[in-house]
Task: structure prediction
Amino acid sequence: MPQDANSSSALPVNVLLRYGLGQTGAQIFRDTPAALLPVFMTTILGIPAWMAGAAILIPKLWVIICDPLMGAWSDRSANKVGRTPFLAVGAILTSLGFYALFSIPDFASELVTATIVSIVFLLSMTAFSAFSVPYLGIAALLSTDTHERTRILVYRMIFVTAGVLLGVGVAQPVVFWFGGGYAGWHSMGLIFGLICLVSMLGSAIGLHSVLKDHKTSEEQATPPLKEQFAALARNKPFRLLLIIHFIQTVGQACSYTVVALVFIYLAGSVELLLPFVIVMSIVGLSVQPLWLSLSKRMGKLPLFVWQVLAWCLITLSWLWIDYGSDMFVALPAVGEVSVKELLILLRGGLIGVTNAGFLLLLTSLFTDSIYQGETGSGAAMEGSYAGIWSASEKLAFALGPLISGVTLSAFGFQSSRGGIIEQDAGALTGIIMSYSVVPMAFFLASMAFVPALNRALKAADQAGEPVPA
Result:
């Protein structure tokens, strides 16, 4: 991996903004299909929940192979054409795929419709791999300093927040603003496809001059694919972080799958989703400087653990979502609102504090793990690391809808064509279980690997390898 004399110095803010810009579109493509595609499939296309989960799973099984290969390909091309072509082509095709995904008509056969959705999603995921894998690797490429990489990711979180706000908070209301039904989903797909294009392609173009300075020389050529994966396998901190990341992302994906259903059926108002996400985003963004400061004082791993445990407590509280529904308070300029609604917004703020924090630190630990591997020779392997990391994330986001789909079906959730229908008490229980208990169980399970990760980091430190302070 190439390094220069200035690689550990503070990067200019304009570089950090150009890098972060691409994450807004990437976050929309990551989150919106995860949160809304199952809803589109089950309430507009009439696909059963279990079949919708399976249709989403198949494309994401493909990226287990696609992402690592794309990462290795981008590494091997780094000294020839650079990474910009991957970013630019991936941005364009991903945006087109997003639009196509929410423009699929309702065929006579549910199986045919599910198959078409799966094929379009597979092609879109392949295009997204071309952008997202080298894009993630760039975070490690831009600096060799552990705390500067955290700073890079703090700026990236600004655009993550924008992507979550748009992709989760605004996308569903947009469907209703354009009349709901198929026409509303089609309009949402067009608008958000364009946002993805501007964000991702803008970052690709904006980073071109920066990435030219980070090409590898012929003498630093990336090793063969087999040797790359062998080097990754020997990197114990990376292996353990990968396991933790995968388990937690499965839990997140379960909750993303049903978040729209939570606000439709349990919160009592889908319009509350937007202020919920706004509160979550603003609060999460405002505490980023605090996490950067505390990570330097406490260490990244201890702070990460505390944030995960706090997130689990907040997530468990959703079991009491109806508390306060019969109590009302008057707020200036707002009027009378229920205590239930206020508590939902409060949860949003607390989730923003913890969720943005542990995602920041986990990604920062990931970039650190690249330097704990065998990249000191100068060979470009950021893409290979990012490919494996990204593949595990996308597999997790495939398993999440499948797990939630099976859970919903087991509790009696009924699919429909043409819009929302009433669900019985059992189905409502399945929704809240998928949003609360199931994700929390995955996060707690991931904590079992933290002691081994701590030992691996200490061993790397004793061996004289760079570890996060």
Notes: The radius of gyration is 22 Å.
